[in-house]
């Protein structure tokens, strides 16, 4: 087995969406796509040149094979434990403009991944990787996964692997109190933390503007790098006591889903390639802008496209 640049652990679901702005309850057909935060990040990183592997536990069913097949088609390697118990997670996305807005319905109870234990997974693969990545979504899925996530982060530390985590709070999965208790317990093992400003305030109870949030998180939790995302206003990155600001690039939005994952995957890829935090943020913002022009969860972008956005300051997206 060759060494991976990035190993990501988590669940990838099948997404079912009615066409256009139709309601789920009246739709006669659904579009099917694969999507999961961790695999989305791995794919974005791979599109920028990294070798990336998605690690998970998947049911040995047609739906499970469909999810894995979609990720393989997107270009990343999959290292999965096939299970004869549990089911494949799905979610339904109903799209609409305001005031109705988008609606997400999760159907991910009793999934195969929720039973995944560290001893079932390829820990040596994690220890030999350059970066291990997961998100706060994974430990939210089950008490078993809370233990497993902690064990995988510890395994990465043992191997000298950089650990990267996107806080990625989902209120439909757990409460702010549960998320804070679990995630802050993981913080000592994390090198890079990506977190939305709203989550830092709502879940962690930290006040201040994004620059202050990044500095406080980095200092208080002894993190190496903190990236605070702020939606349409871009992001800030904290490293070695210095805060870097990056505005968002203007873009026409086809789909918001997966934008944050594209950002994180690109940031990790550029940092691993030797870029400083400021440059990595530029490429991350450009990748996120491009993702918003693409339907589905996955950032099927090219390095040339990303380079063009960075070089021209986003003008290519508004032509």
Automatic annotation (TrEMBL):
Protein name listed in UniProt: PfkB domain-containing protein
NCBIfam families: KDG_KDGal_kin_Halo (NF041332)
UniProtKB keywords: Kinase, Transferase
Superkingdom to which the source organism belongs: Archaea
Domain Carbohydrate kinase PfkB: from-to ranges: 5-299
SUPFAM superfamilies: Ribokinase-like
Protein family according to the UniProt entry: Belongs to the carbohydrate kinase PfkB family.
Gene3D superfamilies (UniProt xref): 3.40.1190.20
A Pfam family: PfkB
Molecular function GO terms recorded: kinase activity
Organism of provenance: Natronobacterium gregoryi (strain ATCC 43098 / DSM 3393 / CCM 3738 / CIP 104747 / IAM 13177 / JCM 8860 / NBRC 102187 / NCIMB 2189 / SP2)
């Amino acid at each position: 087995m060759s060494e991976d640049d990035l190993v990501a652990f988590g669940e990838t679901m099948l997404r079912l969406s009615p066409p256009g702005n139709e309601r789920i309850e009246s739709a006669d057909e659904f579009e099917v796509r694969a999507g999961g935060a961790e695999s989305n990040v791995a794919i974005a990183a791979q599109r920028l040149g990294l070798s990336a592997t998605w690690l998970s536990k998947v049911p040995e069913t047609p739906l499970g094979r469909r999810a894995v097949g979609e990720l393989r088609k997107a270009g990343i390697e999959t290292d999965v434990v096939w299970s004869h118990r549990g089911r494949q997670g799905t979610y339904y996305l109903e799209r609409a403009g305001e005031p109705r807005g988008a609606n997400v319905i999760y159907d991910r109870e009793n999934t195969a991944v929720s039973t995944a234990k560290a001893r079932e997974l390829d820990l040596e693969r994690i220890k030999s990787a350059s970066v291990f990545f997961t998100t706060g979504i994974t430990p939210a899925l089950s008490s078993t996964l809370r233990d497993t996530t902690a064990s995988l982060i510890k395994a990465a530390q043992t191997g000298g692997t950089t650990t990267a985590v996107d806080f990625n709070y989902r209120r439909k999965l757990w409460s702010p109190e549960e998320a804070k208790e679990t995630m802050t317990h993981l913080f000592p093992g994390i090198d890079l933390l990506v977190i939305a400003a709203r989550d830092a305030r709502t879940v962690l109870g930290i006040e201040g503007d994004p620059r202050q949030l990044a500095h406080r998180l980095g200092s208080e939790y002894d993190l190496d790098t903190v990236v605070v995302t702020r939606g349409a206003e871009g992001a800030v990155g904290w490293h070695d006591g210095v805060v870097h600001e990056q505005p968002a690039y203007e873009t026409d939005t086809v789909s918001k889903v997966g934008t944050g994952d594209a950002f994180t995957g690109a940031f990790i890829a550029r940092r691993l390639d030797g870029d400083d935090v400021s440059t990595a943020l530029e490429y991350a913002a450009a990748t996120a802008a491009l993702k918003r022009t693409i339907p589905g969860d996955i950032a099927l972008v090219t390095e040339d496209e990303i380079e063009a956005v960075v070089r021209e300051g986003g003008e290519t997206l508004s032509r």
